[in-house]
Amino acid sequence: MAIEDLARTGVDTAAPAESTGRPPALKAGSIGLIAVLFMAVANAAPITAMTGNVPIAVAYGNGTFAPAGFLVATVVLTLFTVGFVQMAKHITTAGAFFGFITHGLGTVWGMASGAIATMAYVVFEGSLVGIFSYFADDAMNQWFGVHWNWLIYAAICIAACAVFGYYDISIAAVVLGVFLVCEVVLLAALALSVLVKGGGPQGLHPSSINPVKAFTGLSGNTGVKVGGAPLAAGSAAIGLFFAFWSWVGFETTAVYGEESRNPRRIVPRATLIAVVGLGLFYTFVSWMVISGDGLKGSVDKAANNGIGMFTDLAAQNLGGHWVVNVYLFLIVSGSFACALAFHNAASRYLFSIGRELPSLRRLGATHHKHGSPHIASAVQTAVTIVLTLAFYFGTVGGDKVLQGAYTYEYGLLAVMGTMAILVVQAICSFSVIWYFQVKKVHPGNIVTTGIIPAIGGLGMIYVVYLLLDNLDFAGGGGAKSPFFHAMPYIVIAVFVLAGAGVLVLRKTNPQLYRSLGRTVLADSHER
Question: Would the pLDDT of 198 be above 60?
Fold first, then answer.
């Protein structure tokens, strides 16, 4: 009997497995297309991505051709998404990558990939808690001239995520929707103001969106100085990587399939809208900001006052200093929204794994009233608290917001999580090919389930290479810490140990082995 049929007959779809003889389920039919889209885009955090990544790409990457880097990333990620949504049409599970790869490449690959995907989403919340604390401290200082201990801001963020994670997902969707709409409206208004004025000192500079130029690094002869020394030449690879980084989280649409009203239509649509919509938006906003600031002005501000690329232009074009205060508030609220979105995604991955393994059955429980993965949410909160305290007390200068919150907790956890997700995305692309073209579980078009996923998978492998090749730069001030040097080995260790554990399980408990990663929602029509 399908889950929506159980709901109609009055059986509690959030009841424990022991009481119904089936795996626990999240609250079906809670959210629609817009809510799923809001939560996925909130993961990508447009205002944080633009304010944080564009200045780095301009100053140290492909310079004023950074918008072209976003355009290239849009194409590559769209190719990945074409295959991803083909799986989403047939497989609906809160485990997303875990379920997709298990059905495509088998249980060992599925569990190993699911383990590092779960690890990535778990640490992403901690990362966003760090940058939330940094932005909140900066805003409070500019508004009221105060500097509080950054653990206070971290505690507020963690507690709020825990509360929203406990209740029905639709409540969090409303909150995320409000914050997301506000930040998108502000960025769009800023970009349109430049367009209406015809650009800046050099006009609109259309060559900034020439995709060929995305592979051109910043010249070392810009005349810009940083700390009295000339700005060094940039690397196109850095610009491209930070462009790709700006999308991390868009693929979480699949995580909410079990709770959406018609997952096999909503998840594919939301994913494609998210990846293409974000890509066009990122390209347009970064192009307009660079045009508005001027070519040399953009590089100068990017190198010396990154946020000034946006706030100075906003004050100039949108009506004065009050806009800067609005911008500061939306950076804080946007980073919180991103932390909440990753909290929800991580909770559902933990729930999915707990539902599969008898030894972790409590982790796979759902709330009797809200249908939320409340136990997994509480575990996720506890892990985030431990991570935050570890970076505060366990790093040099960890009690300082710039070092502890921004450089270490945000920077290092974001890099490690991104590394893991990029690897999983590459594996998922090839699982699509295996599922449709090798195992032929369902008929699949050779183009959309064969050629395009192959190109997308190779593209994701290239992005992994970009990250590894520029790992020291991505690590920033935390690149000398022991944790930084351990990050690649942590990802590899989690992947290998999870895969080895499944191989042992295949020998000791074949029945459980065969069921791992196979829990899916068996309906495809409207609930």
Answer: yes
